[in-house]
Design a protein that fits this description.
Elements lengths: L3 E2 L6 E2 L23 H5 L7 E2 L2 E2 H8 L3 H14 L7 H10 L1 H10 L3 H24 L6 H13 L6 H8 L2 H41 L8 H11 L4 H15 L1 H17 L1
Antiparallel strand pairs: 1-2, 3-4
Helix pairs in contact: 2-3, 2-10, 4-5, 4-9, 5-6, 5-11, 6-9, 6-11, 6-12
């Protein structure tokens, strides 16, 4: 589909927009458009629009920290770039990996991107669990090194050749590969979230608000609906974290059970 040109200000808009992202006027011909109560309430708001939605309605939908998020929305509209840095999703991803990014999206009620990052977290955990099981890895690189150094401190004679062999052993190499893999996944998810989370949130906000544009009911009802559909949800974030964590831990639980059964069988 071709981009739509606003008949009022001549701004080029994406095909999915029904209202101009610059001036907020409908992109259909004036003759075929019947103003709704939503538009009538905001026709004198001074032209403050984000993606064709009055800025006060966007603020109502965003809710908490709207004063920090809305200026980023406006910068994206003005600059035409999808990149706008946001610290919260980056920090969640940096410290917790993709599950941390999923938590932030769930907190902002963006369930589709939350599911994507949650799936990345689960798949990553499965890969590590399968690698550890089938290659016989019992710990990470730090645990292996600490074990050797502790035995040396408690009287074991230091052997350089043995020490070097430990670093070149299959267990240590695979362990380092898995650790590096996890760190890269975590960093990549954190950077993607930090760079594009605001753009994703802006698109999500425009789409959700557009559902209320055709409504000709009480403006107060529309405002309540925007606040209910937007805002934040601590409960969704906590519940999502629990669900993702449980699903991600299934292979580890199964493999631990198998190892325990093998030990009990030998006894």
């Amino acid at each position: 589909m071709e981009n739509k040109i606003c008949p009022s200000c001549k701004t080029e808009n994406e095909p999915e927009y029904s209202y101009c992202k610059n001036c907020g006027n409908p992109l259909s011909s004036p003759e075929s458009h019947k103003p709704t109560a939503y538009e009538q309430q905001n026709e004198n708001n001074g032209g403050a629009f984000i993606d064709g939605n009055p800025i006060d309605k966007v603020a109502t939908f965003v809710g908490k920290n709207a004063d920090k998020i809305l200026p980023k929305f406006i910068k994206i509209n003005q600059g035409g770039s999808k990149v706008q840095w946001c610290w919260p999703p980056f920090l969640w991803g940096f410290f917790l990996g993709p599950i941390g990014v999923a938590i932030w999206f769930l907190y902002r009620k963006m369930y589709k991107p939350a599911c994507i990052f949650g799936a990345i977290s689960v798949v990553s955990s499965y890969i590590v669990a399968f690698a550890n099981h089938f290659f016989g890895i019992t710990g990470n690189a730090d645990d292996i090194l600490d074990g050797y150094l502790n035995s040396f401190m408690y009287g074991r004679q230091f052997n350089l050749e043995e020490f070097l062999q430990m670093f070149t052993s299959r267990e240590m190499i695979i362990t380092n590969i898995m650790n590096t893999y996890e760190n890269l996944i975590n960093l990549a998810c954190a950077l993607i979230a930090g760079l594009f989370a605001i753009y994703i949130y802006k698109k999500h906000t425009a789409k959700k608000i557009s559902l209320f544009r055709p409504i000709s009911g009480d403006p107060n009802y529309i405002k309540i609906g925007l606040a209910a559909n937007g805002g934040t949800s601590v409960g969704a974030a906590i519940l999502g974290f629990i669900i993702i964590s449980v699903i991600a831990s299934i292979p580890s639980i199964i493999f631990s059970t198998i190892k325990l059964a093998e030990v009990m069988y030998r006894l």
